Amino acid sequence: MGGRNVHLPESVVVCEVGLRDGLQNEKTQLRTEQKSELLEMFQEAGVRIVEVGSFVNPKAVPQMADTEDVFRRIRPRESAEYRVLVLNAKGLDRAVACGVRKAKFTISASRTHQMKNANRPPEALFEQLGELASSAAARNVVLSGAISTAFGCPFEGEISPEKVAGVAREFEKVGVREISLSDTTGMANPRQVYAMCLEMRERFPGVVWNLHFHNTRGMGLANVLAGMQAGVTRFDASLGGLGGCPFAPGATGNIATEDLLHMCAEMGIETGIDLDRMIAAARLLQEWIGHDLPGAVLKAGKNSDLHRTCEKNEN
Q1: Residue 91 contacts by C-beta under 8 Å, 6 or more apart in sequence?
Q2: Which residue, among 20, 73, 11, 77, has the nearest Cα to 46 in the 3D structure?
Q3: pLDDT tens readout for residues 107-150
Q4: 153 is an active site residue
Q5: Residue 156 burial by Cβ neighbours in a 10 Å radius (0-12, 13-18, 19+)
Q6: Rounded CA gap, 47 and 23, in Å?
Q7: CA–CA gap between residue 14 and residue 219 (Å, rounded)
Q8: What are phi and psi of 247, to 5 degrees?
Q9: What is the rounded distance in angstroms from the CA atom of residue 237 to the CA atom of residue 282?
Q10: Left (φ > 0), alpha (ψ -120 to 50) or beta: where does 152 sit?
Q11: Please, what are the domains in the chain?
Q12: DSSP assignment of 247-258, as one string?
């Protein structure tokens, strides 16, 4: 497993968010059929958790207008999880209507970001959260939470652990047991991630923590490693490294799924996902989107590919 005193998990869970966070900021809008084909490729590769889309106002985020259609086309696999993002009761109603069993609700740790994102202060969302959690439970939908700008805000700067814990506490009050810490604009650093994850795990031992990193400043995978060392084993990633929040300046792409899978493979950490299949899916997505994707493995290939190429040239 590597050098001495490096504590790493034997396996991690990777959630593919490309269909939602990856596509929501793209000018090119994929057809429903294309999204469905990508989702099927994810499943063939062994991805266990897919964020299918979001139920938001299509005028605000037109890339997500066909989420119902995409969800209804899913050929579900045993033990797989399909989640969507909802912003309010109307979004939850839409989710329930098409058979969604897992919904995610996001609240920002930054008051300024929350106001710009939803034009409502966090306190208003706390009240809405209670109503949403009750409604979801009554209709057999699991509600998970996400804390955006958990590691820094482009408007307010540094975000204290106390602010993050304050939001987490509101989620825990209403029975949410899975919470994502989201680095919305890629401001996190590994030392900060390690400390934040240790503190949140200590304060909220009953919560399953997830990490969502953007690679804005090239520290995404380093932050994943810091999270692993702090005991977190669930990570979001986006095919090809697509992504970005439409309401957060400078929010470039998420960490690339294939880069995360490659790093885990090189380190002997199991993901249960076929890296080659995901690289093939990233190539297809790049063709459809019509521009280069930022993923590193997509450009350079796997370490093992380079080794084989050198051997072939020598022979």
Answers
A1: 54, 55, 56, 85, 103
A2: 77
A3: 999 999 999 888 888 888 999 999 999 999 999 999 999 999 99
A4: no
A5: middle
A6: 18
A7: 18
A8: -110, 15
A9: 12
A10: left
A11: 13-314 (3.20.20.70)
A12: TSTT--PBPBHH
pLDDT tens digits, 159-196: 999 999 999 999 999 999 999 999 988 999 999 999 99
Residue with tokens 């993901």: 271
For the beta carbon of residue 86, count every other beta carbon within 10 angstroms.
25
How many whole angstroms separate alpha carbon 259 and alpha carbon 98?
33
Question: Among the options 197, 245, 264, 310, which is catalytic?
Answer: 245
Q: Dump the DSSP string for 180-196.
A: EEEETTS---HHHHHHH
Residue 128 to residue 124: CA distance in whole angstroms: 6
Task: Spell out the residues 6+ positions from residue 173 whose beta carbon is closer than 8 angstroms to its own.
Answer: 130
d(CA 207, CA 113): 24
Q: Say how far apart CA 174 and CA 135 lie, in whole Å.
A: 11
Say what the pTM is. 0.93
